[in-house]
Amino acid sequence: MKFKAQCSKLKVNSKRQGSSSNLPAARRLGALALVLPLAFGLCSLAFAANAAPAPNFLFIFVDDQGWSGTSVAMMPGKDFSRTAGFRMPNLDRLAAQGMVFSQAYAGHPKCECSRASLQMGRTTTSLNAISRWSRNWSAPASDSLANTLKRANPNYRAAHFGKWQWLRTPEVFGYDAGDGVTQNEDGDSRDPNDPKQSFGITRRAQAFMEKQVKEGHPFYLQLSYYAVHQTPQALAATLKKYEGAGGGPGGGAKGDKGKGGGRGGGPVMAAMTEDLDTCIGVLLKKLDELGIAKNTYIIYTSDNGGRTEVLKGGKTLCDEGGIRVPLIVTGPGIRSGVYCNEPAVGYDIFPTVLDFVAPGFALPKGVEGGSWKPVLLNAGTGKVARPIDRIVWHHDVEIEHPQTAMRKGNLKLLHYWDTKESFLYDLVTDLSERNNLAKQQPAVAAQMLAELKAHVRAGLGEQKFAALETGKVEQGGRPGDGKGKGGKKKQQ
Questions:
Q1: pLDDT tens-digit profile of 359-408?
Q2: Residue burial 192-216, b: 16+ Cβ < 10 Å; e: rest
Q3: In what order do the strands lie in the sheet with 403-408?
Q4: How far apart are CA 33 and CA 378, in angstroms?
Q5: CA pair distance 475, 489, nearest whole angstrom
Q6: pLDDT at 476 over 80
Q7: Which of 301, 372, 377, 475 registers the highest number of CB atoms within 10 A of its CB?
Q8: How many beta carbons lie within 10 A of that of residue 492, not counting itself?
């Protein structure tokens, strides 16, 4: 306000000096030349002082947590979309403060490729990152989320802690701090006080946030927790709460079909999930302590789905169980306690972050995700506009049937490359994917299949597409028939 007053005063004084008939023209121009730059400079400072600070982003990326693997119902009032026996009070708090997406998806039904898709903002097929052995991605690391963010605003700093899974380092993808190249086994902690490294990751995150606030940098912080991936680990004190209780109060996870992230239930899974939630609480407290909670967007989701009570299939499969995941987003401008029914996918995070930081900034060529900003700031209504009007998943190794799925609107087509079977589902009326509409709507199925194949062909190239058409795929560089390295379906 003080700056504004000075601006107004300087403008008035400059007018008075300019209108004085007693001053020669040259002197009047000279006075203006001295005064106006100062006036404009102070006005610029006033604008900067009143402009909203650049937002921070805290991205909590959970490993192998299925759609119903949290305490929060992903569909309002539907208990089958949550696990009642899990204690997650901090995630409950996030959901109450922000928006829950009922139709959220991972970019791939398995860890590695889902993570690649997220970093680069595109489908795994277009990226040519369809298995753990994929090396020749179609987009350079310089076009990653973190690198693009720092081009849009060089003041940002980025960090990645936890599970990474690719050979090229996080630094190459634009992260200023991180744990380097890590794999699943790195999460199997030998420290009883740090199961799944959840607490260590959280401590490193706290230190990073403190440093950025001290140095005046907005940040993008991705925490790729190893929980709740196998092998489950938990604090002894947390596990004690669940032992003998069937996995948790109010209907435990023990013996159920895939709750708790799709990898089985039991007391350890419930305890590991609670430990993860404890870490979320620590992060929320740190945001409050640093005074940045009101300027930080928090995104919570999983890298792939898992077996659930209602959804068909699980991890590695392009059925809903393998790709549908929890998604909760909170932050400035987001109405609390809202559900959104608009489909969202992991590779949307890239354009969403950029849209909040630098609206209109040119994204790298080939980004296929769309920004959630319009629905986040409009109480969950509206549409996510993507450059391509479809969401595509592809997986052809370590599973019985090489397969691709595509969703357009409410319809989803799943295609098996080896048997040539296609399955058409209306996900609004048939969430469990039991009623194949392909024979009832052959024209729609044929049109969607043609679009699906064109997408795969454009992304993977003629040679790979031709191999898929024959039903043959490569298993880690070796010929295979889509049934895993030993010719049998691999158990995940």
A1: 999 999 999 999 999 999 999 999 999 999 999 999 999 999 999 999 99
A2: eebbbbbbbbbebbbebbeebbeee
A3: 391-395, 403-408, 411-416, 422-426
A4: 47
A5: 12
A6: no
A7: 372
A8: 19
Distances, alpha carbon 158 to alpha carbons 53, 357, 412, in Å: 17, 14, 36
Residue type for position 34: L
* Torsion over CA: 374, 298, 368, 54 (sign): positive
Position 38, amino acid: L
> Could you tell me the two tokens for 297?
């967007």
Q: Quickly list DSSP for 202-230.
A: HHHHHHHHHHHHHHT--EEEEEE--TTSS
The tokens of 441 are what? 């709507």
Residue 425: both structure tokens together:
């589902």
Q: Count other C-beta atoms under 10 Å from residue 217's C-beta.
A: 17
Rounded distance between C-alpha atoms, residue 49 and residue 7, angstroms: 13
User: Counting beta carbons within 10 angstroms of the beta carbon of residue 244, is it exposed (0 to 12), middle (13 to 18) or buried (19 or more)?
Assistant: exposed
What three-state secondary structure class fits 428?
coil
Give per-residue pLDDT as tens, 382-392. Answer: 999 999 999 99
Q: Could you tell me which of 54, 34, 37, 33 has the C-alpha nearest to residue 45?
A: 37
| Cα–Cα distance measured from residue 411 to residue 426, given in angstroms and rounded to the nearest whole number | 5
Per residue in 343-382, is it b (16+ CB within 10 Å) or e — as a string? bbbbbbbbbbbbbbbeeeeebbebbbbbbbbbbbbeebee
Q: Would you list the DSSP string of 364-420?
A: PTT-----SHHHHTTTT-S----SSS-EEEEE-SSSSS-EEEEEETTEEEEEETTT-
